[in-house]
Amino acid sequence: MKSDFYTAISQIAAERGIPKEAIIDVMEKALITAYKRTLGNNPPPMEVTVRLDPQTGAARVYAEKQVVDDVLDDRFEIEISQAQRHKPGAQLGETVMVESTPNDFGRIAAQTAKQVVLQGIKEVEREYIYGEYMDREGELITATVQRMAKGNVILEMGKAEAILPPKEQVDNDRYYHGQRLKVYLMEIRKEDRGPRLIASRTHKQLIMRLFEMEVPEIYNGTVEIKSIAREPGLRTKVAVAARQEGIDPVGSCVGMRGIRIQNIVNELNGEKIDVVQWSSDPKEFIANALSPAQVVEVHLNDDDHAALVIVPDKQLSLAIGKEGQNVRLAAKLTGWRIDIKSATALLEEERAAAEARGFAEAEQMQTEAELANARVESRKVRPDGTVMYQNNRYGPLGNDLIGETVQLRATSQKLYIYANDKLIASYILVEGSNGNDDEE
Predict the structure, then answer these.
(1) Alpha-carbon distance 428 to 262, whole Å?
(2) Can you tell me the distance from the alpha carbon of 97 to that of 379, in angstroms, rounded to the nearest whole number?
(3) pLDDT in the model for residue 419
(4) Do 399 and 409 form a contact (C-beta atoms < 8 A)?
């Protein structure tokens, strides 16, 4: 019949989810430390092993001893004749492994075993938890809310605990004890107190994993998620493309009667999700990304990586979205800066621009006509770099022109100054001139 010791070890192993051999290994190491304490403060370097009988729990100590003629301390030395019983041919000065179990080592072993159960097993358990979850970083995990602590939500995931920090929580989520929810295992940190599992409900990859779970076409790779833009708890846009002809990527994600997308929305407590068709054509992709709004036209500015999107007047507020949410998410999804205008606003802007151009052209023609008929007058540039016209100074024109002669032509609004038949400056005429000229 198996001993109580073996039964206790088996029970601990089953409860903690770790192998019995690992527990025995930890206890043997602890017993080696306990034995070395019996050797005094400064024992000589020596090898010590402890073997636990898994049936009885009895501990046997095997210690390295030096072969001598005359034993002074039997804890570290062994007489040559005895040594040769353990190791035939042993010579003086050699070391041999000899059973050295102290008389009261059973009591020491029992105390040490208790300490290991209370302390050491925790460390083994942490290592096995880390080993179990280290390859699961980035996975979707189903967890149970255990408690709240300093703003953190503590989640139970099988044998392990995970932390949902405040910044990884969705504002409109309400967490309560016993609640089951799906989280994204964002990070696994190996710390002194054991592995620290960090979960998230706000990460974009949570959306990816939920779609993989609900949409077989995404899981098997026939439909690909190209990009995700998310404002956690409010709205998400997902761009999808088919890798196989004949597959409707958007329809696959939505599912018959919307059942697939509804399951994801329910898991996210009502967060709205727009699934749009990805396209390699930026214009088409931007138009799709602004769904559910309809788009009339898209103009791209490649230099600024910006897009001007024209929408029908009645679609303007829908395209922009509440507090700009729809256009903001579309910009994140596509990677383009998006400016939206209604068709009427664009026409008005174009009309105003055309009028401004017409006015500027008419003004230019009038100026050219006045200049053609204007009298040409010569002036010498003064030492301060200015010229006089109708008792007013204009300039400065630059030091290189001081003392040089320049030509002046005046329209009703401006004075134009030329040097060697080349226009070098123009000035708005000073009002209030008396018309008298001071020529030098």
Answers:
(1) 69
(2) 117
(3) 92
(4) no
At residue 181, φ and ψ (nearest 5 deg) are -150, 160
Whether residue 19 contacts residue 1, with contact meaning beta carbons closer than 8 Å, is answered with no
Residue-wise pLDDT tens digits, 175-222 = 999 999 999 999 887 766 666 789 999 999 999 999 999 999 999 999
- Distance, CA of 115 to CA of 4 (rounded, Å): 18
- Tell me the domain boundaries of the chain: 4-131, 137-200, 279-368, 374-440
Each residue's pLDDT tens digit, 14-73: 766 677 777 778 777 777 877 777 777 777 778 888 887 766 767 788 888 888 888 887
Rg (CA), the chain: 44
Structure tokens at 83: 């040594």
Sorted by sequence, the CB contacts under 8 Å of residue 219 that are 6+ apart come out as 212, 213
Q: For 4-131, which CATH class?
A: alpha beta
Q: Which CATH architecture has domain 279-368?
A: 2-Layer Sandwich (3.30)
The encoded tokens of residue 356 equal: 């401004």
Cα distance between residue 120 and residue 53, in whole Å: 19
What whole-number distance in Å separates Cα of residue 418 and Cα of residue 437?
19
CA angle 390, 393, 396 (to 5 degrees): 145
Of 58 and 123, the one with more pLDDT = 58
User: Which residue matches tokens 């997308």?
Assistant: 261
CA–CA gap between residue 37 and residue 436 (Å, rounded): 117
Q: DSSP string covering 72-116, please?
A: S-TTTEEEHHHHHHHSTT--TT-EEEEE---TTHHHHHHHHHHHI
Query: Inter-axis angle of helices 325-334 and 282-289, to 10 degrees?
Result: 150
Q: Which CATH class is domain 137-200?
A: mainly beta
Token pair of 129 as six digits: 């938890």
Tokens describing residue 90: 């042993």
CA dist 348 and 9 (Å) reads 84
- Residue type at 41? N
pLDDT > 90 fraction of the chain, expressed in percent and rounded: 41
Does 188 or 228 have the greater pLDDT score?
228
Q: How far is CA 188 from CA 85, 124, 203, 407, in A?
A: 53, 17, 15, 81
**What type of residue is 329?**
L
Are 323 and 286 within 8 A, CB to CB?
A: no
pTM of the model: 0.58
Ordered DSSP codes for 350-410: HHHHHHHHHHHHHHHHHHHHHHHHSPPEEEEPPTTS-EEETTEEE----GGGTT-EEEEEE
Intrachain domains 4-131 and 279-368 with the same fold: no
